[in-house]
Write a structure and sequence with these properties.
Blueprint lengths: L1 H6 L5 H8 L2 H34 L6 H50 L1 H12 L13 H18 L1 H7 L5 H33 L5 H12 L2 H35 L9 H25 L6 H25 L5 H25 L9 H5 L2 H21 L15
Helix pairs in contact: 2-3, 3-4, 3-9, 3-10, 3-11, 3-12, 3-13, 4-8, 4-10, 4-11, 5-8, 6-7, 6-12, 6-15, 8-9, 10-11, 12-13, 12-15, 13-15
Length: 403
């Protein structure tokens, strides 16, 4: 998929939806992408602030002030630096984070022992500690859901896609994906080790969000504390700036530009992109302060991102590889795929009660894993039904894009 999409020389994945289907499909896809992106941004901000507060032992009363400072810093340098600021911070992030992650992992294993650590985890959680199949919250349904979700993110998620689409050529793009696969694995695996170490050190009942930074702050010596803090700060800033730039670009490119008959000048695009960076930053701060997670951040991010992924994957795959894929099918794919995760997100924000006291209808109806698997299945079902049934305006259909 990444090779074929790069050959089209587009700026956003949602641009492809207009090339292959229609302007309406592009706008719908971009709208769902922006909703998913902005909903995830506020949580990233809060998690970054919680890490800073716990790792540096700042009083928790300064959490909101910390979030405000983080937003101001990110918005200012993103507005002034644009994509250059993202590239520079990504480079700094890689150098600092790669070094600090390896050192941190060594300290965790030193604290608990390599084999002893996993033995302690098993004594704490039972067989479910090492076997996802036997864990009540995971199992095969989670593995299927996460596999499809992760593949979707490689091409559909705009902060990733903007780097894919900026590669010099499709061949270089494929080489980048192969070369970075191990780094993606390490980025996932090493923090899991820290989480296991924190659960053993602090106890399984300790707050999951605050536990890992609290644990690391207690086992690191002073010099390593500073290095690790710099790495985590760079990672947080890089992620936030990438997201701000990505969503502002999608809004300008896919929600405003298609409706301007004479297009938008380069100066106009820059101005609008900067304006939406500021607006999204403000929304990010308000949402981060107001919203309280009832489940883990990981689960929340899976749900809100599936709002776009479930339909987007079906629309993209069918458009690239199925000649009969049409506009009506694309509409149904996006709508069918977004129904369950969007209903959950709206219900979750509407309840906003302390964790465990109130469970919404969607949560009672389906487990998180089944909700995710079913959403992707509904996305492909919508594409199949819409493309095979004799509905829609034939004049609105477009032939497959030549690649």
């Amino acid at each position: 998929m990444v090779e074929r999409v790069r050959r089209l020389e587009i700026m956003t994945i949602t641009e492809y939806f207009e090339l292959r289907y229609s302007k309406g499909v592009r706008v719908l896809g971009a709208s769902l992408l922006v909703v998913a992106g902005v909903l995830s941004l506020g949580v990233f901000l809060k998690l970054g602030a919680v890490f800073v507060v716990q790792f540096t032992n700042i009083p928790e009363t300064y959490l909101h002030l910390t979030m405000t400072i983080l937003v101001i810093v990110v918005v200012v340098y993103t507005v002034l630096g644009g994509m250059v600021s993202v590239v520079v911070t990504d480079f700094v992030q890689f150098i600092l984070l790669a070094l600090s992650m390896l050192i941190a992992t060594l300290f965790v294993f030193t604290q608990h022992g390599f084999f002893g650590m996993f033995q302690q985890a098993e004594s704490l959680y039972g067989k479910a500690a090492l076997n996802p199949i036997s864990h009540p919250e995971y199992g095969w349904s989670f593995i299927v859901y996460w596999s499809v979700f992760a593949i979707s993110g490689c091409i559909l998620w705009q902060p990733v896609a903007q780097r894919v689409l900026a590669a010099q050529n499709p061949e270089l793009n494929k080489a980048i994906f192969k070369a970075t696969s191990l780094m993606f694995l390490g980025r996932a695996f090493l923090p899991i080790v820290w989480g296991i170490g924190a659960a053993i050190y602090l106890g399984a009942q300790f707050d999951a969000t605050a536990g890992m930074p609290k644990f690391l702050s207690e086992i690191f010596p002073v010099g390593i504390l500073g290095l690790f803090m710099a790495g985590m700060f760079a990672a947080s800033m890089s992620t936030d700036s990438s997201y701000l730039l990505a969503w502002s670009s999608v809004i300008v490119q896919d929600l405003i530009a298609p409706f301007r008959k004479n297009g938008i000048s380069d100066q106009g695009r820059v101005f609008l992109a900067r304006l939406f960076v500021i607006i999204i930053g403000a929304l990010m701060l308000v949402f981060g302060i107001w919203y309280e997670l009832k489940d883990t951040a990981f689960r929340y991010l899976l749900d809100v991102t599936t709002i776009y992924y479930a339909g987007g994957l079906a629309v993209l795959v069918a458009g690239l590889y199925w000649k009969r894929a049409n506009t009506f099918g694309a509409y149904l794919a996006f709508i069918f795929g977004a129904i369950l995760p969007l209903a959950y997100a709206v219900e979750d924000m509407a309840i906003q009660s302390p964790a465990g006291e109130t469970v919404g209808f969607v949560s009672r109806l389906l487990s998180p894993n089944m909700r995710g698997v079913l959403s992707f299945a509904l996305g492909f079902l919508g594409m199949g039904l819409g493309s095979l049934l004799p509905f829609g305006d034939p004049k609105d259909q477009k032939p497959a894009v030549k690649i």
